[in-house]
Write a structure and sequence with these properties.
The protein is mostly helical. 69% of the residues lie in helices and 0% in strands. The chain has one domain (9-75).
């Protein structure tokens, strides 16, 4: 006997996906603006800003590489904790 899952249980996944997407978009634009600002202004080429630039680039790479896989896991209710990208 298989139970039909009511639609109410899918609502939290939708809100979780919306919040996750919002944070990803804000993170993408914020890190992109940080990189753009440091590259464009010569007076911002300091050691601290070089470190911030590296952090922003690494954050952007994580967003671009891992965000689609995390969304796929959220939509398919995959709870595997492994770190496979393929």
């Amino acid at each position: 006997m298989s139970e039909v899952i009511p639609e109410i249980y899918h609502v939290p996944v939708f809100f979780e996906l919306m919040i996750y997407s919002f944070v990803a978009v804000i993170g993408f634009f914020g890190n992109s603006l940080t990189c753009f600002t440091i590259v464009r202004n010569k007076e911002m080429h300091t050691t601290v800003n070089c470190y911030l630039f590296a952090l922003a680039v690494s954050d952007l790479m994580l967003l671009v590489v891992l965000f689609p896989k995390n969304v796929q896991n959220m939509l398919t209710s995959n709870t595997d904790l492994d770190c496979q990208l393929g």
